[in-house]
Amino acid sequence: MAVQPESSTEEIRRLRRxxxxxxxxxxxxxxxxxxxxxxxxxxxLDALVSMLNLDFIYARLGNSGASEHTExxxxxxxxxxxxxxxxxxxxxxxxLADDPQKISPVVSNFFGGRxxxxxxxxxxxxxxxxLLVAGSGRTDFPQQTERLVLNVxxxxxxxxxxxxxxxxxxxxxxxxxxxxxxxxxxxxxEARAALEKAFDEIKRSEAKLCQVIDAIPTIAWCNxxxxxxxxxxxxxxxxxxxxxxxxxGWGWQAAFxxxxxxxxxTKWREMLTTREPGEIEARIRRHDGVFRWFLIRAEPFLEExxxxxxxxxxxxxxxxxxxxxxxxxxxxxxxxxxxxxxxxTLTASIAHEVNQxxxxxxxxxxxxxxxxxxxxxxxxxxxxxxxxxIRDGNRASExxxxxxxxxxxxxxxxEPFDLNEAVEEVIALLLGELQRNRVVLKPDLTADxxxxxxxxxxxxxxxxxxxxxxxxxMSAVDDRPRELLIKTESDEGSAVRLSVKDTGVGFDRLTExxxxxxxxxxxxxxxxxxxxVSRSIMESHRGRLWAIRNEGPGATxxxxxxxxxxx
Amino acid sequence: xxxxxxxxxIQRPLVAVVDDDESVRESLPDLLGEFGFGAGVFAxxxxxxxxxxxxRTKCLVLDIAMRGMTGLDxxxxxxxRGHTIPIVFITAQKDETVRKRALEGGAVGVLLKPFSDxxxxxxxxTALGLG
Lengths: 567, 131
Hints:
The complex is a heterodimer. By secondary structure, chain A is of the alpha+beta class. Chain A has helices at residues 3-32, 37-51, 85-97, 144-215, 234-240, 244-247, 261-274, 318-373, 379-407, 419-436, 456-473, 509-514, 530-540, and strands at residues 56-61, 70-75, 106-111, 114-123, 130-136, 219-223, 229-232, 278-285, 291-303, 306-316, 415-417, 440-445, 452-454, 483-491, 495-502, 544-549, 555-562. Chain A folds into four domains: 10-173, GAF domain (Beta-Lactamase); 216-316, 2-Layer Sandwich (Beta-Lactamase), CATH 3.30.450.20; 318-409, no CATH class; 410-567, 2-Layer Sandwich (Heat Shock Protein 90). In chain A, 52% of the residues lie in helices and 21% in strands. Chain A is rod-shaped, with a radius of gyration of 64 Å. By secondary structure, chain B is of the alpha/beta class. Chain B has a single domain (14-125), classed as Response regulator (Rossmann fold). Helix content of chain B is 38%, strand content 20%. A five-stranded parallel sheet of chain B has the order 2-1-3-4-5, sandwiched between helices. Chain B starts with 13 loop residues before the first strand and ends with a helix. The chains are: A alpha+beta, B alpha/beta.
């Protein structure tokens, strides 16, 4: 009975120790947190060797078959003489190579003649994590509580190792991912660098393009599809002195001449509707207030039928325009000179035409007065002479009307007129002169020709010039009739042409080329501007003037003038 | 040829008018008649030369610018033929060279159309030695 309490006390003491050991073992994972497998195992071995008072404890991490495994050993303080861990591990090796489960609990003469009891525990369900071998020379080893502590410890270790593995794997994955991310990041950096380089390239190219656009000696611009301006190059800002802010949208209108803006806007609106390219001339104010003429051109930029932008240029044509004006003025002056020349050479025939009937009037009127003054008055004679006076007066009046029509300088006015009528008027004016020059005039005017469009007076001057030239060309002809054939006919329906054919001296090939040049003449008394001015007059009518040599003697001059398309 | 006083009781001095302008040929004879002259009219120099009036003509009123033979041509032709008929030229064109040539050729005067009746009368009287 006495033993009973003692053994009970011993039992209680042992159980308490076991509980303490278990609590300690269960507390171990807290220390392991974050540690690697060797840290966990090393910590565990330390705890167990002292806790269970073992002679040694051995651990192998990883499968024995695996190429990589770690062995660890703790030797208890009680084992004398102290062996080297290698010695124990050598002793264990034959078993461990075999199935560890078959390790016999007690190994005789394990070390230094001592019998050692061994407890082998698998780490992990199938020992995949390793093996734990505890050895003690105590005869009561392993007690039940000790086996329990070892089992719990092995389980704890397995859990700890598993977590460590998971962690390690996680770390590896993180590391892997980090490597991948770093690589991706590097690629990203490279791509970004390439992009920046390309962007720089584009910026440089854009700068270059801008430089080109700004450097071109004309105003270049870009408008939005519905009209307002989006961009104007440097030329514009330098010329007008307007800032980009002042010019964008519709601000540019401020620089245009008030007289030119309405037609410009009309044209622009028309182009916006039709989406057709177009051009117009307008004056733009320079920064110093001077207006200069510009030719403004615009092209629509379409993409798959959609209007994206309007691109345009405004080119300074002021100098050209001035030159054109000067040329027109010179041409007008030349025409004026030609007219004066024609007039001066015509003065003789005008005087003749007018003075002839005037002479009759004066003579008749004088006679009439004398007859009335006679005693007795000759009333019959007076009546007759008075009648003649009136008739000659009307004749003179007709001549003057014709002359006034031909030579009173009106503004150049294009209007439809009948070419035949115009020709007949010129013929009537020149008839006396032609008769005196013994020129036989043969008019052949086609009836019912369409009206032509032009300045009647100018065209009549050309016709007059041609008839006089024809007459002059025959002045030296005595061996054949001096015939002048004047013909009008339709010229392919869209124009009417007139020919003046003479039997005069004609012209040779060399002359043919120079015929219409200014200041070229075959006449001793001419200025040589009649034909060149005549041609420029016809060209201003969109008509033509040319000459051909006849099969027989003489030449034929042709003019063609477009019909009035409105009739 | 037309002569107003052929066979008239009083022999009027015959003045011949040569002009290609009809209004002159119509009007001048009446005025010459009022002056007391006989008048003959011809449309061209050729017509006058071909007529039988050349010898009887006391004075010639002659146009300068005419188709065919001009007034100056006729002046020369008459000289060649030995006729010394005084000539009063009439012309519608003022041309100093022509005027000079006419006067050098012996013309009594050159009248610019339109001329007054008194200017003509004065020239005729000079030509006929009446003034």
